[in-house]
Amino acid sequence: MSKKTDLTTKLLAKIQPEHPLPEPLSEANLLEQGLYAILLRKLTPAQAKDTVVRLRNAYKDWNELRICQAQEINGHLDLGSKGMAAAADIREYLQEVFQRSHGMELEFLRDDVQGSQRFVSILPFIGMGTAHYLLWLASKGELPVTPALMRVLDRVGLVSRTASPKKARAAIEPIVPNGKELEFAVRFGEVASRWCDARKPLCHQCVLVDDCKHGKKAFRDWKIAQERLEQQRAREAARLAILQKKEDEKRKKEEEKRKKREALEADKRAKEASRLAKIAERKKAEDAAKAAKLKAVADAKAKAEAERVRKQKELEQKKLAALAESKRLEEQRRKEAERKKLEAKKAAEKKAAEAKKAAEKKALEAKKKAEAAKKKAKKK
Ligand code: SF4
Q1: Where are the alpha helices (DSSP H) in the chain?
Q2: Ligand 1 centre from 122 Cα, in Å?
Q3: If you placed Cys at 131, which of 25, 87, 120, 244 could pair as Cys (CB 3.0 to 4.6 Å)?
């Protein structure tokens, strides 16, 4: 038994409570004592006490407070920046009490054993440390024996689990150091809430693991499982590394292929551009030559046309000149004919005049002859 007491003392020394043990409030019911314990998680004892008094005065009953918004609760407090966090804890505490007990008081912990066992079976927010504290208050300093406490003590090897609360108390009480019932209940209660879950105890995190019968094995199993996991992780990491390497190589090859392809395409584009440029240049030259040719043809045509026009003009001028010449010659001929006609007329007139003159002379001579003959004849 002394061995177990030594072990108990050793284990208790290892458990550091997350929150200080409250001094019981004077003239407060169990619900208020629980509220005070919860408030001590974030407030000083003076602030926590003042908060309980303020809320007690501000609300008709605790159920009215339970359904209030945190902002409204904070309005009744004088906690500055801590106000909202404290208000949220107050609501959560009252809500958990209500859900677990279907009421808004905890006085049943004093005499309802079955109701108490039911209430403390699941208290995620209040926690088993605070629950044991409340049970300790309710029983006026008697050691609280709960399934959670039994579970932890059984696992660490201090007592064997039993369904009989009487036998359990008989087994536990002898190992509790004198005058340390509350500390014992609260600290092992914290172990139950923080690590020693009924289904999945977190032995690898638990402060008692080195001295816990169940925990040592569980921790060994956990370490083996972790090593396996680590090996698996290492294998997986190696597999992933190989895959990554392959992937990297594949990407590298693809990248090289892409670059090569791009270089080829760029080269092809450059060649095509060069070819097109040459074609364009050739076409330009051809177009220029064609244009020059067309221009030459057009110039030649224009020149020929101009020549034709010039020749035509020249021809027309010649024709006009010929016509004029013809007219002039015609006029000349006409004038010549007129002149000849006039000359012929004049010659005819002259000839006629001369013939007339000759006829007159001849007639004159014939007359003269006749007169001479007549004279002659008369003379005879
Ligand atoms: S080591 Fe494991 S079994 Fe032991 S008390 Fe801690 S959580 Fe519970």
Answers
A1: 2-14, 30-39, 45-58, 62-66, 70-75, 83-101, 113-121, 127-138, 147-156, 165-172, 181-194, 213-379
A2: 18
A3: 120
Cα of 157 vs centre of ligand 1, distance in Å, is 10
The whole-number pLDDT of residue 20 equals: 80
- Break the chain into its structural domains and give their ranges: 2-209
The pTM (predicted TM-score) of the whole model is 0.65
User: Which of 198, 147, 145, 197 is CA-nearest to residue 174?
Assistant: 145
* Two tokens, residue 370: 């006749």
Q: What are 274's two structure tokens?
A: 């060069």
Distances (CA, A) of 55 to 48, 58, 130, 261: 11, 5, 20, 79
Per-residue pLDDT tens digits for 175-204: 998 888 999 999 999 999 999 999 999 999
Give me Rg for the CA atoms of the chain.
Answer: 73
- 117 in helix, strand or coil? helix
Residues 87 and 76: their CA atoms lie apart, in Å, by 10
- Where b means 16+ CB within 10 Å and e means fewer, 163-172 reads eeeeebeebb
Q: Tell whether ligand 1 has an atom less than 6 A from the beta carbon of residue 15.
A: no
59-64 contacts at long range (C-beta below 8 A, 24 or more positions apart)? 61/104, 62/31, 62/94, 62/104, 62/105, 63/94, 63/98, 63/104
List the residue whose alpha carbon is closest to atom 8 of ligand 1. 196
pLDDT band at 41 (very low <50, low <70, confident <90, very high): very high
User: Under a CB-based contact definition with an 8 Å cutoff, are residues 89 and 42 in contact?
Assistant: yes
Ligand 1 pocket residue status of 87, Cβ below 6 Å: no
Distance CA 365, CA 367 (A): 5
pLDDT in tens, 321-380: 888 888 888 888 888 888 888 888 888 888 878 878 877 887 788 788 877 777 777 766
Measured from the CA of 214, which atom of ligand 1 is nearest?
3
Helix, coil or strand: residue 29: coil
d(CA 289, CA 34): 109
